[in-house]
Amino acid sequence: MIHLPLRRHLVGPIRLAFTLLGLPHTVWTSGVRPAISCPSSYPFPTSKTISADNTSYCRRHSTMPSSVGPHVKSRCPQYPGSNIKRLSVPDDKVDWTQKWPEYNPVSYTAPSVLNNPAWADPDIGASPKFNTVDGAVDRTSFEGSYKVENGKPLNPCGRTGLAGRGLLGRWGPNHAADPIVTRWKVDVKGAKIHHSVSQKPVLQFVSIKRKDCGEWAIPGGMVDPGEQVSLTLQREFSEEALNSLSSSPAERAEIHQRITNLFKSSGFMVYKGYVDDPRNTDNSWMETVAVNFHDDLGNSVSELPLEAGDDAGQVQWVDLDSSFPLYANHSHFLEIVAKERKAHW
Asked: DSSP secondary structure string, 233-264?
């Protein structure tokens, strides 16, 4: 996600549903985020079935039920983009309330973060003000108040087997926004196509293939200083899925108008909270706001040619289906969208 002055001209004032009001405005300053390498397998089981007796990826969060146990990808054996091995944390030792006096994970912060880029915090000695808005940085968490031990914030979802910041710039929560843009899959006559098994209509969403790890994902990114989350959602989709930065002025105007019309509609709040991300550590973690914008008539962004932006190797419309693997916990976001739209999953 490369920040260029040009893109500010592409994002005009937009309105989003009242569900987005009051969200944190700022976490990252501008700059180039380091690429990561995404592990393809993890040592702990996952499940796609929603269960009522488990809460979200963080068990104290009640917004999005899930059968996924304590964070899984946040405990991947090898930290992405490095040769650093995490200390193996069993399920019953993830929660900080479980006594584990022998727990002594290695501390790792990537060189790209230690070089003090504009988007990263200085070393912990600067004493950030946690659980509040600290100058230009919002250090509050969607998961509520998190603990601070020995001057460092503790991951609200428990142990990860690695201390430090890893590839993340901020101590504590690192806020992002994920726009989920969908349309109905239709035949040549414009009629909805129904899945042969579920008999439900098939939804498609815009997916990018990440250059850094080759996994398919929702085209999201980090929230910039002073930026409304609604603007982040629109900006990230424009840059990563439509590559508006490389378009001609006339094309940018057309893209901007189509995107603005879609994103000023009432988006469906899919999720707001902790993200089970392989970059997470004991002291730094990802949180996001995921919102679904649906092109119901197929006459908005559906007609625009997709073109991969700076973070994307490929971009295309993909059928929503439980068998399609995605980065981090993006599959669970899409499961919620499918159920909300009464579509196949």
From this structure: HHHHHHHHHS-GGGS-HHHHHHHHHHHHHHHT
Beta bridge partners of 78: 85
What letter represents residue 322's amino acid? S
Burial of 199 (0-12, 13-18, 19+ CB in 10 A): exposed
Residue 138: strand pairing partners: 133
User: For residue range 203-215, what is the model confidence (pLDDT) as tens digits?
Assistant: 999 898 887 778 8
Q: Which of 219, 149, 150, 142 is nearest to 173 (CA)?
A: 142
What does 38-88 look like in DSSP terms, one character per residue? --S--SS----S--TTS-SSSTT--SS--S--S-SGGG-SB-TTSSPBPPP
pTM above 0.85, yes or no: no
pLDDT tens for 83-113 read 999 999 999 999 999 999 999 999 999 999 9
